[in-house]
Amino acid sequence: MPELPPCRSCGASELHLFLSLGDVPLADNLLRPEALQELEPRFPLDVAFCPRCCLVQILEEVPPQQLFVDNYLYFSSFSDHLLDHSRRHAERLVEDRGLGPDSLVVELASNDGYLLRNFRNRGVRVLGVDPAPAQAQAANDAGIPTVAEFFGTDLAKRLRDEHGPADVVIANNVMAHVPELNDFVGGIAALVADDALVTVENPYVRDLIIHGEFDTIYHEHFSYYSCTSVDTLVRRHGLYLNDVEYFPDLHGGTLRWHMGRTPDVSDTVSAYLARERETGLTGFGYYRDFALTVERIRTDLLDLLGGLRSQGASIAAYGAAAKGSTLINYVGIGPELVDFVVDRNTYKQGKFMPGMHIPIVDPQVLLDRQPDYCLLLAWNFTDEILRQQEEYVRRGGRFIRPVPVPEILG
Ligand SMILES: [Zn+2]
User: Fold this and answer.
1) How far is the CA of 5 from the centre of ligand 1 (A)?
2) How far apart (Å, rounded) are the C-alpha atoms in residues 58 and 49?
3) What are the Cα distances from residue 213, in Å, to 56, 188, 189, 264, 372?
4) Which end of the chain has the smaller Cβ count within 10 Å, N or C?
């Protein structure tokens, strides 16, 4: 085993490896038909724990340009649940903070402007930052001014010079995407006014471990956070973790951290930090056996799908998301088990899943071909998908959820 790199947050050189998912292709690198004959680049995917700052992280660093610019097809606006969640968040911030035309709300990884448009519609000044060109273009076209660059300390200083300090900074599901973590958080600290509120959302590493959500691990996700690791990280940059909210149904269990330049630590934060210590989440023992959990999911899922196939059943899958790619590549689910993957995102239709080369088609095909079973690769949107696919179920179709334990629903 070669020497492990230093911790991405605190720089300690004592990372403990606890899971290897093998050599896998980049999860968002969906293939056009003409690319199927070409050799796909593969990268190892190894996960480690830092005993000093408690950050869980992958060891590999694929260049961000390759991850988020060249092939990035995630558009937030394709999920109704996410749009709802964002609208509620924005409306509450406008009320609570008394935001108006003189305020500035900056969102990092603002995607197609799905969240910022809620502020703009209330007359608040907004600015988006997102390096993905298609998404930034879509936002600009929709009247949400968006800078198509990677965020860091240099850009933060420039934005502050041009637009003034931010009153609210929102960073949802992006802190995991950042290899240069300290440059990113330092940038937030440089961008905000003294009384500003920063809210950061990210899946909770506790839920990843206890619910077996190994498929949320992929090369785009450099880090997996707890309150302890976030608290340590932001304090290094003069920010304080002051409050925390929990959304059990968002991306398999998401935390929203409230931060600011002034310490005002709530009882909720203290309780989270205490519970993380008490449950052992701040020690390596919490993670040591996770590889066994993941192996068991692989065996059980292959048994389930293989068994159904041998009885003559047809199987499709739902959701050509990055987590679906991790799942099928690690478990080894190819076209011999799953005929096609459906996805609402029109940018993905007509392409093929990385590594396993399963075709991606419009969700309508689920009704046209009525496969007996449908594997929920996008299990984080289970309720939303089940509502949209009532007709498929009414005609006898059954969904399969892969984690925490593979099971046929209904
Ligand atoms: Zn560390």
Assistant:
1) 11
2) 9
3) 14, 29, 31, 33, 25
4) N
Q: Could you tell me the distance, in angstroms and rounded to a whole number, from the CA of residue 107 to the centre of ligand 1?
A: 26
Name 318's Cβ contacts closer than 8 Å, sequence gap at least 6: 341, 342, 343, 363, 366, 374, 375, 376, 377, 378, 385, 389, 399
Given a contact cutoff of 8 angstroms between Cβ atoms, the answer to whether 59 and 17 are in contact is yes
Q: Strand 146-147 vs strand 56-58: parallel, antiparallel, or unpaired?
A: unpaired
Give the distance (Å) from ligand 1 centre to CA of residue 51: 7
| 256-304 per-position pLDDT tens digit | 999 999 999 999 999 999 999 999 999 999 999 999 999 999 999 999 9
pLDDT digits (tens, 9 = 90+) for 88-108: 999 999 999 999 999 999 999
Q: How many angstroms from the chain centroid is the CA of residue 329?
A: 18
Nearest alpha carbon to residue 379 among 338, 326, 313, 329: 326
Q: For residue 226, give both structure tokens.
A: 């707890």
What is the 3-state composition of the chain as percent helix, strand, coil, each rounded to the nearest 5? 40, 20, 40
